[in-house]
Structure formats: C-alpha cells, structure tokens
Write a structure and sequence with these properties.
By secondary structure, the chain is an alpha/beta fold. Helices cover 38% and strands 24% of the residues.
Length: 394
Amino acid sequence: MTGKLQKLLQKRTRTVIGLLSGTSVDGVDAILMKITGSGKSSRIKVIDFITHPIPEDIRYAVFRNSDKKTASIDEIARLNVILGAIFADAFHKLLRKNRMSAAGIDLIGSHGQTIHHLPGKESFLGFRVKTTMQIGDPSVIANLTGITTVGDFRIADCAVDGDGAPLVPYLDHLLFADKKKNRGLLNIGGISNITILPKGSTLCSVFAFDTGPGNMLIDGLMYHLYHKKFDKDARIAKKGTVVPKLFECLLQDTVYRQNPPKSTGREHYGQQFQKKLLKAAKGLKSADIIRTVTEFTAYSIWYNYQNFIESKCRIDELIISGGGAENPLIKSTLSNYFKGVKVIPLKQFGVSTQNKEAVLFAVLANECIAGNAANMRSVTGSTKSVILGKICQA
C-alpha cells in the first residue's frame, strides 16, 4: 500500500469529487463536496456542481456503440480512453472554477459512461451471467488528475448475481430515511428508478427498482423529430395531445410491467425501440408523439407504484430528482396520478435534482475506501453484500 493511500484511509473528512455521465450523454456532471465519516454516520457538504459538455461527435459515437447492431470493438476501446480524458477535463474545470489545486482533493468517484447493461441472467459458453459495462476508465482519470480514483462500481454486484443497478437507493437510505414518514425517492434520468423508504427503515427494509423509461424516449424522439437534445420546459409536449392509439401501443411494452427486482437501459428503450415507435406513429403530429411519450413516462412510474409498492408501503411523499424533475409536464402528470401524495423536488443537504447522482458516486467512492459494502441485496437481487468499485492510483 502506498503512503498516499494510507493517508487517505486515515482521514475522517475527505474532499471528494464525484463524476457522472448519464444515458443522455450530454455532459459530465461534476460535484465538489466534503464527506465526514462513512456508512450511516456519513455527513456531507456540497460545495459546488458543474456540467461539462461532451462534444456532439463523441456523444453520437457512444450512442452508436451502445447498440449491438452498430457497435465496434475498436471504437469502444478508444472511447474508453477518450471519455476518461473528458472526465478528467471536468475535474480540472471544477477546480479552476473554485480556484483550487489538485492537492486539495483527496478522492475522485467516477461512474463512467454505461454503454451496455445486461441484467438478465443468460447462458453463455457454459456460464450463467449478468453483466454491465461502463467506459471512461478510472485509471485514465487517476493518471490525468494525479488523484486516487474509484470507478467501475456496478460489476461487483453482477459478480454475485445482482443486476448492478440501481445503486442510488444506498444514498437514499443514508440521507433521506425518516422516522415518521414513508418516502418514495424517484430519480428520472434516462431511465426512471424509485426507492421506497418505509418510516424508520433499515437497510433490509428498503426496496427499489427501475420503473421504465425516464427521459430516454422523450430525448430520443426529440432528436428524431426536431433535432434537439430534449424538450426544454416541455414546450413541445404542451402543444400536443395524448394519442390513445399510440399510448395503447406503448402500454404493450413488457419491461415496465415486469415484477421487481429489475433494471433496464438503452438496450431496451434505445434506438431500436424508438424506431419501432416512430413507425407506429407514422402520420401523427410530432408534438402529439412527444406529448404521448411524456404521458407514458409518468404513467409507467405510477403503474409500478400501484402494482408493486402501494400494498407494501403507501408513501406520504414522493421526492423527485434527475433531469425529468425539471420537466413541468412530467411533474404535473405525476401529481395527477399520485393523488394524496405530496410530490416535491429534491433539495436537502445541498443535494438537488441536478446533482444527486454525482453525489452518489462521490459517496460510493468514500464507502469503497472505508471498506463498506454498498450494494443492497433487497434492491439488486444479489446473493451477498459486496464492496463496490475499483481503486486506481496515480
């Protein structure tokens, strides 16, 4: 063990940067924060947050290589290094903004960029495996920043029969469990996932899963129909109306209706799904298509609550985060579905709708260094608790 790592292990309060690129691949979220302690005794202080843009050609290269029909092993290998460099650029940009030097940072936690997620256990070459792949190698980040970096968090859970997702429930339990209220924490990123925290919850009583699409269908169709990254403030969707025939077509999707534990991603709701949907929507107004998929996004969340959660735990509050929490139409539609439940945007401990997932990977890096298992067996379906992440030293 190096002296540098020994000093890091001995610190009670660490200055950590969390890095994340989500399914929209539009930028690297970077958060600067202090973490004192670990596990349930963790105390966090958010200092600053930025989003560092990812160039358009690299963004579409990630999309291309997330689809098995168009993926190329040589491009994936190169993107692994390129994205590591872009994540390192986000780190340096955040430091410049805060007039800090790298010497002031103890640790980096990087999720990387998911390009393939296969949570279903399938036979291959005599093995039955679940797997996932994130690129933007943490060793590249460590060596371009000079800072110990923890990354590749999901694969350890897959090794013990877990889905490798969702991981955010661990953070939810640490920060948002309440003694008197049943809470649901809904993250609407590219994919939507929900965490249920029964009042007075323990790690064993928390349950969570992916509910289906978040922004992925809306963003994908906005690009196909309008050549825009997303529907800002739901301006397009608000001009349209829900088309019953198209909505019925979306209801036939099987993934959002599966029993938990479950997780999903671009492998299901990506380009192939979107192309089939556009084919079914031929002749319809573009705004009506966007309005319909926006409605379906909210409905799929409600369907999962009604069918898999409500009988076990009727929630008092639904706290929403992620890019979808910024969509006013998704928020109002959720309020209509979740009657009697307070639907509120996340804002606590300096954690907001925009920065929550970056906070997660800073916290998970801290948990890895502390030697704490951070997967949740009740959530991912894993057979045992494991330490998440690989430690890469500069």
